[in-house]
Predict the 3D structure of the following.
Amino acid sequence: MGLSRVRAVFFDLDNTLIDTAAASRSGMLEVIKLLQSKYHYKEEAKSICNKVEVKLSTECFYPSNTCITDLRTSYWEEAIQETKRGAANRKLAEECYFLWKSTRLQHMTLAEDVKAMLTKLRKEVHLLLLTNGDRQTQREKIEACACQSFFDAIVVGGEQTEEKPSPSIFYYCCDLLGVQPGDCVMVGDTLETDIQGGLNAGLKATVWINKNRIVPQKSSPVPNYIISSVLDLPAVLQSIDCKVNMSD
């Protein structure tokens, strides 16, 4: 009995299908303009945004009891207070947060070539979007980039008991599509969640998108395939299926 062909592909969202990092930078630039033009901040504007970026990079979610709006507004409030050494300014923090968020969402789009790739792939295999993160935040991104129609199912980690890299969320995805882990491929940009999760769940293959040509640490999980762009995925899937045909 030969190996099975790929029946389903699980895609990460952030920095895999949409350029979340670039969208966030655009949001920060708008906040800097606001602080400099309306409030006459100088270098402090960049300092505040840098502090918020650090807070976002170390953010931890507690899905059951955290309001993401309150949490992220508090990052701006703390950053402003740390930089200006004055009293807390919640109103300004809210203005900064909502400008950053709205600008970021405006820049979250699916490129036309990515849409075309997804449309073509879906004629051959099941497609599922599997994204970690806070429910509200991720659902807003999904709506902003209008990607729902390209997938057979969408799973948000913040709505589940466990997120990537836990095997349970991968098994849940398999159940949704009526496939086995050995039928599936995980595609994502994060070794610790996307790739480790795919390995933990025993998927057929994991594909790491290494756009910035990062050299992984020796302790990092090892993906089955490495590509620099999600647009290189069809060739990888064809390669996997060719190996299956050769084993039959």
Notes: DSSP finds nine helices and six strands in the chain. The radius of gyration is 20 Å.
